[in-house]
Amino acid sequence: MPILLKDHDPELALRPGTTKSDIVKYLYQHPEWGYSPKDVTEALDIPRGTATTTLKRLYDDDYLGKTDDGYYHALGDREDIRRYVSSLDQTHRLFGHHRDEETTPETPEKRIGDGRTDEELDAELDALENEMDGLDE
């Protein structure tokens, strides 16, 4: 996917599809709330230890804030992270329905080349190429 260079931050070490990215996305989508590791575990269905460790690393790397009583939250001054989360949301709106786990691809009624030998397919391809060459002249 192309990026808009004026908004690109190569120092942002987040990659879509990782637990780190999922946690950042969740907290920045709900910036008015603070979450405990248990809350994140339940919301994202990840192991408690993973949530605790990842939240601490994100806090240490200044991706998240943390209250004195242990609730993690989005930072108001991280416009780069807000852009990242926004791009994830836009990508999901554009392509997310194609990745629905419950959806199975349709099976075509007829497959190209069914019931024909390689020689017949080659002859048909040659005929089409000759036809196209005739149109170009």
Kindly describe this structure.
The protein is mostly helical. It has a domain at 13-96: Orthogonal Bundle (Arc Repressor Mutant, subunit A). 50% of the residues lie in helices and 4% in strands. The protein is built from 5 helices and 2 strands. The protein has helices at 19-29, 37-44, 48-60, 79-95, 118-136, and strands at 64-66, 72-74. The protein has a two-stranded antiparallel ribbon with strand order 1-2. Helix 1 crosses helix 3 (48-60) and helix 1 (19-29) packs across helix 4 (79-95). It starts with 18 loop residues before the first helix and ends with a helix.
Secondary structure elements and pairings:
Elements: H1 19-29, H2 37-44, H3 48-60, E1 64-66, E2 72-74, H4 79-95, H5 118-136
Antiparallel strand pairs: 1-2
Which features characterize this protein?
137 residues, mainly alpha, Arc Repressor Mutant, subunit A, two-stranded antiparallel sheet, 2 strands, elongated
